[in-house]
Request: fold
Amino acid sequence: MRSFIAAALFVTSPVIAQDVATYPFEGAYEDAAFAVENAIVGHGLVVTYVSHVSEMLDRTGPEVGDTTQVFRNAEIYLFCSAALSREMMKTDPLNIVYCPYSIFVFENDAGVTIGHHTYSDGEMKKVEALLSEIASEAAEF
Reply:
């Protein structure tokens, strides 16, 4: 409970659970989404795809017999770093499974959250550091 309270008090402190780091965002969802995309581009990277998760869930809910709204808004921003990806895959070709990298933004009853995957010890910690830097910059927007 203390780590949750600490995370709520310090926006740049991620909450890490189940291989995911999350950063609360104080503000509107649209501002958080804009901040994430700007932070990615600000690192010289290109967003290659935006997955509109909330739209997909809302659209397919009736087909699977569950119309519960999971998110008000939710998107995943996919991107890659050519230099970092090359380094990770030279180290271990199986690191291909982690590419492209992603940062998510969602809004639910608890508010707006930005987050990303975390990785076990090793070379992928370099990717996690990049994701953490981007997500924390966006959360401070």
